[in-house]
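Example record for the data management plan.
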Amino acid sequence: MRCFGIGRGLAAIAALAALAASAVLAQAPALTPTEALVSPTTPTASDPPLPPTPEQVDDAMMIHRRYQAAIEAYKKAPRRSAEVWNKMGIAYQMMYNLDEAARCYKASLKIDSRNPRALNNLGSVYDSLKDCRAAERLYRKALKADPRSALIQKNLGTNLMAQRKFERGWQVYQAALAIDPKIFESATALKVDNPAPVQERGAMNYYMARGCARAGMTDCAIQYLSAALDEGFTNPRKIGADSEFAALRGIPAFQRLLAEQRNP
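Corresponding structural encoding:
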């Protein structure tokens, strides 16, 4: 089954904004991307300083977006562990080489079939290829291995939304927020852009604006409305007629936003 775009039926997700009040970005996001999951080794303060290992040097290349250099370095690893294959897959995925990314993730899973990172990442490749059913199966398998991963929960929720399983997707988003209230804000992993059309991103932003307005989050609602207007999903007349925005009508910033759109 191919993924549908996240379209106009997204009223169920609007309440997400209310639950994530402390996690609103300064700029309203577009559709939630699926994410490739990286687990770098982080030394503790009590650890003595040690020279970086070759793999840590390669990881630093990834952080600085030197993906091709990182791939060449990973290829020279004396032993390609499940995690090395997984990191190679991430580098390929960041360069939108999905075939090679999938090959690397599958090689990782041949070594460790329950590796939640490789399962999640392969799922995000299938999402990019709009094979939602295959992606959903992989996310669910990843969650069996790591049920406390807010990121995998979020990816599954986005996947279900793309299949128009709105209530189920919303429930999974709630589970993600219960684990990490900032999961929709924090840069917890390398993100893979969602290829949804601009009109669908506009729909997401519009419904998020309604959720913010319902929760009394004025600034948040205006930011999301601005994004939805820029993406051509809505217009000042539709916004003015939407009862969800009644409480915003006397706010100068809201009035300016609509006036700017009427008189560009």
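Summary line stored alongside the record: Residues 198-262 form one domain.
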